[in-house]
Amino acid sequence: MRKALLSGALLAVAAAVIVLLGGSFGDDLQHVALLGAALGGVVGLVPHQPAWGRLAGFATGFVLAWVGFALRAAVLPDTAGGRAVAAFLVILAVALACAVSAGRVPVWSALVGAAAIVGAYESTYTNAPSQFLDESPTAATTILFAAALGFLATSAFAESFAAGRHERREPAADAGWDLEQDSPTTTLDSVLAGEPQ
Amino acid sequence: MKNVLSPARIGAAFVVAPAVIVLAGGPALAADNVSVSNTETVQAHLDASGHVRDARVYEQLALQGHGTVTVSDPVSTKNLRNLDGFGGFDVKGANLVANVSVDGERRLRAVSDFTKELPLKVTATYTLDGKKVEPGDVVGRSGLLQVHYVVENITGRDQEVSFDDGTGTKVTRTEKVVIPMVGSLTTVLPSTFTDVRSDEAAIAGDGHGGTKMTFTMTLFGPIGSPRAEFGYAAKVTDGVVPAATVSALPVSPLDSPSFRGGAASYKGGADTGLELTSGATQIDSNVLKLRDGAAQLLAGLIKLRDGAKDLNAGLSGKAAPGAAKLADGAGALKSGTGKVASGAGDAKAGSTQLASGAAALSDGIDQITAGVDALPVSLAKDPNFQRLKGALASMKAGIGSPTDMTRSTLLGGLNLLRAGIRSPLGNPLVPKDGKTGCDPLATSGTTVCGAADGIDLIADGLDKASKAGGSIDSLIVAAQGAYSYVHATNPTCPALDSNGLPPIPGAFFDAPAGPCYAAANVVFGLKADAGTPLPGLSDGGIKVQTRTAMTKLGIISGGLSGDALNGIDAIKKGLSNVGCNPAQTNPQAADACGVADAAGLVSAGVDTLVASIADQLGAALGQAADGASQVAGGAKALDSGLGQLKSGAGQLDDGAGQLKSGADQLSSGLGDAAAGSGELAAGLDTAAGKAPALEDGASRLSAEGTTKLVDAGKGTAADYGLKYALIEAGAQRAKAEGMAYGAPAGAAGATAYSLELAGMSGEGSRNVGRGLGAMAVFGLGAGLTVLRRRWL
């Protein structure tokens, strides 16, 4: 619970800082502050080995989704079918990349990265697909900066929390706490991969 | 569950998903009517100064109905892409060709590079604190920023347009005609822009602290201008160049509800100009006619004035004095006819006495004859017989000869009486002046005219005066002319009727002393027919009365020349018959001897007749008795003729009296007419003096008024006509060339232009900063993680 409180408090501070930095880093930062802090927090909080795989997955998903927007703007039809194909291809590319990494790059972080750019840019893209080159960098850098602050706010403490969790597992279990509720024994990758629990 | 199916799932997804997408399109449909509309949207991106960076055109075909239709849409084929499906398009030439099945509604969209020149040219210039700067120089600066936009419709081309120049003539002129376009420029200024001012923009807040500005543009003449300039000024802090969007589209001014009224007003202006020109031309023409009419009026007034002066001179100098003389002559005539009547009465009395004396003479001769019959043979020696002879000689001498022209003998008296009736004296058989031979001007001598001659002269004069075209008619014409002029100058004075007479004076006449009344009286006095219901004119005017007098005088002359003269001749023959035959016993025979002849014969042959005195004296006395009887008969005939003479003289006296009355009226009327004509001449003189001002005024009205009005009408008609012709030509271009690439045959189409004017916000450097910052922060986070694992 302390972990949740601390991480939540840090993320809250990070979100507030992001909003306040909007004056210097662009007004759009205010609009994606919560989204970026939350997604960065997810990347920072969810444990994965190797640890860099989280960031690599985030970056992979982020870039592939960005490329998906480029495909929609340049090649695909502006229809539900075109959008479906783009989504299909992005997810498929994410899955392929993660598969190629042999588990080093988690699928979930790649999906978080894709979600970050989609959340930040989808509405802007819908308004002006032809402005992709002009507007997508702003959306991308803005959400990246917000996500980085969220990641920073949580990543330093996440490992210690994870370590502390293992150290306190038995006393907690002795106290009757069902630590499984907070500390999954199955990795998120396993869940996403559909492995049996 | 293992992850063994992931590749299969992926492969299935690859195959199934597109299939599902493609199959979502729906079934093909039966053929029916399909309507097609085509819209084009040209989107261009411009840098902050207005230079075009890229442009593309979005084609959209909307099909409604049921059936299958093949559309061929003119498009730009460069980088043509289907926006509604994965497949491409069939392109033939420069046309997108598609066979489309429609069941209700169907849409096709495509995008391609815009390969033509944009119809609008946008230029944006910036000044900061009064100095011209590049857009990038504004970023991060503070001061007074002024932005100036110029949007220009560059579709203009030279084209011939025709319009009415205001005179009904079509004028063709080469003018630059643009495709009419309307649009707006919209920009949103951030909250760092304060004290925003613009003379052209509609300004409102955007709800986020910013300022939204909209500039509307009508990029065609004459309603607007192909070139629009506008802008704004604001105080900026940490400045940026706001982006702006120019939206525009071609429009037909004749069909657009927004501009139809304006176009109609130009047409109305042109039509009004035409009407103004036409009306002003008519007015000017009429003014010129007025000027010409004024000139003619002036000429007529001058003639009328001169005529009035002549009339005045004629009336006052000739007619009035002539009328006065006529009145005097009529008075003299009246006096003379009075004397004629009196003389005729005296002659009648004398002839009665003559008849009585002749009868007594016949009785006496009868008594003498009876006494001679009773005389004895010794009578010749009887002193009484001698006295008888002397008495006979005295009687013969008293009777006188036929050529006597003295009052001392009976025949002389008769000759004088005859000469008093008909001249010349002593030579009645020699005609003079075609009738009597007397000299009307002689007052003494043998050529003095007799009463019948005078009557004939008067009758001839009256006949000449009263004949058609005679002097009375000339007077009538002059009087009618004077009256007509008075009528023309006095509207209350009625016109002459078809008989040339004014109406009977009534309420419409002016005062009795007025010119209308006077002129009417003159006409009536001269021309009125007998029975005219006007006081003093029941017997008619001078002309009628003159004819009556002439007729009466003819009757008198006939009486004098007939009965009176015949009676005198008979008396003379009874008294003395030159060349008589003493043997003639028929007293009615032409050679029968008269009383004097008989007395002569008795006196000369009494001695030789003594022997047979009884027979011869008896016969002679018988003849004397017959002659005395003839004298008595002639005296009676003379008495009858003189009775007629008296009656005719009385009528002549009456006619002369009427003539004198009419002449007096004529004299008075002509005097009034002379005075009126003098006033008329003076008035016409004044009118003639004023008439040039009317001509001058009409000329000035034409030169300074109506001519300028015509010029103004022409100018208005031509100006508005040209403008409306430009609107029409623009409307035609809008319909023919309004679309960037055109629409399929039979399809409705429209094109809109969206020009995105880029802003300058320093976003590129911000992106770099944010990106680098993000990587740094991610790196910091990763570093913290590593540090945490190693040291904590």
Descriptive key words:
heterodimer; A: 197 residues; mainly alpha; 10 helices; 78% helix; 0% strand; flat; B: 792 residues; alpha+beta; Immunoglobulin-like; ten-stranded mixed sheet; five-stranded antiparallel sheet; disordered N terminus; signal (chain B); Putative membrane protein (chain B); xxxLxxG_rpt (chain B); transmembrane (chain A)
Mean pLDDT of chain A: 79
- How big a fraction of the residues of chain A is strand? under 5%
Low-pLDDT windows of residues of chain A: 160-185
Oligomer: heterodimer
Number of strands of chain B: 17
Give Rg of chain A in angstroms.
18 Å
Helix-residue proportion of chain A: over 70%
Q: Please provide the ordered H/E string of secondary-structure elements of chain B.
A: HEEEEEEEHEEEEEEEEEHHHHHHHHHHEH
Specify the overall morphology of chain A: flat
Proportion of residues in extended strands of chain B: 15-25%
Residue stretches of chain B low in confidence (pLDDT < 50, at least 5 long) are 1-32
How far apart are the termini of chain B? 38 Å
List the chains of the largest interface with their residue counts: A-B, 47 and 48 residues
Largest sheet of chain A: none
Count helical runs of chain A.
10
Q: Using DSSP, what is the number of strands of chain A? A: 0
Based on secondary structure, the structural category of chain B is alpha+beta
> Number of helical runs of chain B?
13
Helix/strand order of chain A, N-terminal first: HHHHHHHHHH
What do you see in this structure?
Residues 160-185 of chain A have low confidence and may be disordered. Among the domains of chain A are: 1-45; 49-130, no CATH class. Chain A is mainly alpha-helical. Helix content of chain A is 78%, strand content 0%. Chain A has ten helices and no strands. In chain A, α4 (33-45) crosses α8 (132-167) and α5 (52-74) runs antiparallel to α8 (132-167). Chain B has 792 residues and is of the alpha+beta class. Among the domains of chain B are: 34-116; 120-250, Sandwich (Immunoglobulin-like). Chain B has helices spanning 6-23, 135-138, 257-373, 383-399, 410-421, 451-466, 471-489, 515-527, 542-575, 595-604, 606-610, 613-737, 763-791; strands at 34-46, 52-74, 81-82, 90-92, 95-113, 120-128, 131-133, 143-153, 157-164, 170-177, 181-189, 193-197, 202-205, 211-218, 227-236, 244-250, 748-757. In chain B, α5 packs antiparallel against α9 (542-575), α6 packs antiparallel against α9 (542-575) and α7 packs antiparallel against α8. The longest helix of chain B has 125 residues, at 613-737. Mean pLDDT of chain B is 78; it is low at 1-32. The interface between A and B is large, with 47 and 48 residues. Chain A: The chain crosses the membrane at residues 31-48, 55-75, 81-100, 107-126, 138-158. Chain A: Residues 167-197 are annotated as: Disordered. Chain A: This is DUF1097 domain-containing protein. Chain A: Keywords: Membrane, Transmembrane, Transmembrane helix. Chain A: It comes from Oryzihumus leptocrescens. Chain B: This is Putative membrane protein.
